[in-house]
Amino acid sequence: MTLHYKKEDIIAAYERVRQRIHKTPVLTSALINEMAETKLYFKCENLQKAGSFKIRGATNAILQLSEDEKKKGVVTHSSGNFAQALALAARDLFVPAYIVMPDNAPRVKVDAVKAYGADIRFCKNTQTERVRAMEEWQQETGATFLHPYDNPHVILGQSSCAYELLNQVSELDNIVSPVGGGGLISGTALTASFFSPNTNVFAAEPKGADDAWHSFNYGKIFPSENPQTIADGLLTSLGEYTFPVIRKLVSDIYTVTDEEIIEAMKIVWTRMKIIIEPSSATSLAVILKHKAQFRDQKTALIISGGNVDLNRLPF
């Protein structure tokens, strides 16, 4: 896929979604700065509607549909944050939403999707089953499939997070964001390339699900096969739209262990008094692991979400 995005696309996406989402705060912690030996700025998408940045992409994608498509609704398959985001965005825009979820999806996420009024069907937790169930439902309803991340309108919606961030903190040296399927990091990298070209964008990934690291370093998409990590939001493979952006515009991808992720998560919970999910903690884990790389610079970390099952905390 060629990179055909323009600066105007990012501004248009932001203008489209900004009235329908929260402008999330940027927090700092003197204590964590001391530990990391640098200046850190936490962009708190854990305080976003539906608990993660995903509402941005879901909202932008729905708003790009025709009136006829909106009437027929939207369908997706997701085990968590995109399911919640699409359900809420669809409800707020009076669009039917059909969500396929794996039968082992966290109860807290299933309950949230139900509360937002979407219809749910369960399937076995394999990519093949998820796609099959989604396609069946799509045929029945005529709904438009919205991919959780590998969709240009979703990517542009996610870019609004970094666009907001760059207007909140000037002259950033670096932005570090988690990478799963790549919607957030590709939107972030696009935004930085247009509006802050001197800012490096780095991706943070769990060692137990390091398909993006392999894809980035070997120049082709490596599928995520049997990933083993506590960061349940980062289990998916890069897609045909996200991969080229990441390969061209991201400076590097760093991996961290689950132990390092848990330690970073604990630090944020105890020092900053905010709830973040394991996937979000990968960014701080990278900073703490590579202090020399980030020392005495201005670095923003995107806290991607805060949807945690309190009955399954890792500490």
UniProtKB/TrEMBL annotation:
<dbReference type="GO" id="GO:0000287">
    <property type="term" value="F:magnesium ion binding"/>
</dbReference>
<comment type="similarity">
    <text>Belongs to the serine/threonine dehydratase family.</text>
</comment>
<dbReference type="GO" id="GO:0018114">
    <property type="term" value="F:threonine racemase activity"/>
</dbReference>
<dbReference type="GO" id="GO:0005524">
    <property type="term" value="F:ATP binding"/>
</dbReference>
<dbReference type="InterPro" id="IPR036052">
    <property type="entry name" value="TrpB-like_PALP_sf"/>
</dbReference>
<keyword id="KW-0663">Pyridoxal phosphate</keyword>
<keyword id="KW-0456">Lyase</keyword>
<dbReference type="GO" id="GO:0070179">
    <property type="term" value="P:D-serine biosynthetic process"/>
</dbReference>
<dbReference type="Pfam" id="PF00291">
    <property type="entry name" value="PALP"/>
</dbReference>
<dbReference type="InterPro" id="IPR001926">
    <property type="entry name" value="TrpB-like_PALP"/>
</dbReference>
<dbReference type="GO" id="GO:0030378">
    <property type="term" value="F:serine racemase activity"/>
</dbReference>
<feature type="domain" description="Tryptophan synthase beta chain-like PALP">
    <location>
        <begin position="18"/>
        <end position="305"/>
    </location>
</feature>
<dbReference type="GO" id="GO:0030170">
    <property type="term" value="F:pyridoxal phosphate binding"/>
</dbReference>
<dbReference type="GO" id="GO:0003941">
    <property type="term" value="F:L-serine ammonia-lyase activity"/>
</dbReference>
<protein>
    <submittedName>
        <fullName>Phenylserine dehydratase</fullName>
        <ecNumber>4.2.1.-</ecNumber>
    </submittedName>
</protein>
